[in-house]
Amino acid sequence: MSERFFLATPPAGGKAVLTGDEARHLARVLRAAVGDEVTLFDGRGHSWPARVAVLGRDTVELETGEPRVEPACATAVTLAVALPKGERQKWLVEKLTELGVARLVPLVTERGVAEATAAALARLERGVIEASKQCGRDTLMEIAAPASVAEIVATKTADVIGLVADPTGRPLDTAGWPERAEVLGLVGPEGGFSPGELAVTDAAGWPRVALAAHVLRVETAAVALAARLAG
User: Fold this and answer.
1) Using one digit for the tens of pLDDT, what is the confidence trace for 133-161?
2) Domains along the chain?
């Protein structure tokens, strides 16, 4: 795989322009030369083979080939996760991006340990871009606005399958799901969901699913659920 770069503005007329950090990384860090070949992707499922045409101080102009369209995942997965602390958030975003999760909702819970501030959300979005560049994914995982358990349950539509990761639940069983399912999974904080939060999901009929024989950390549970759903 050639070096990959995120392109905020799609090519026009067979030409594209990288700016900002992406351009500086290509021109200064990788020391690209005119004629070098790279891959561009727009985060919306499209990528282009490209060749460096003009190197500027903070911009790089490229000539692009025919676009390629990334196939859609069979299961559209949204995970609402109570964010862990520090570097564990970066690892979480990296792995969920690799596994093809469509959307990550920072889950606001009664026992949460990390706040989804504007700065934290910006870091998560940058992490998605970096992970997508590394793993070859052309569709960026969406980082949604923070929401509580009650808000998520209230806004779920009838065609979406809701799940709650919980060590007291039953093993996940996808038998009988439609061929192209849309799934929304909740993953709570280290201390687990509160009785009140579980009462909300139980009342809405969301099954509790166990993901392993032991209690998992937040990021492990989220990745385990994503891997099961992606498979």
Assistant:
1) 999 999 999 999 999 999 999 999 999 99
2) 4-69 (2.40.240.20), 76-230 (3.40.1280.10)
Type and span of the H or E element at 104: strand 103-108
Which segments of the chain does DSSP mark as H helices, in order? 20-24, 87-98, 118-135, 149-155, 195-203, 218-230
pTM reported for the whole predicted model: 0.92
Residue in this structure with the two tokens 């358990």, named with its chain if needed? 149
User: How many other β-carbons are positioned within 10 Å of the β-carbon of residue 113?
Assistant: 13
* Pairing between β-strand 68-69 and β-strand 46-55 as defined by DSSP bridges: antiparallel
**Which amino acid belongs to residue 37?**
E
Assess contact for 81 and 71: CB atoms under 8 A.
Answer: no
Radius of gyration for the alpha carbons in the chain, expressed in angstroms and rounded? 20
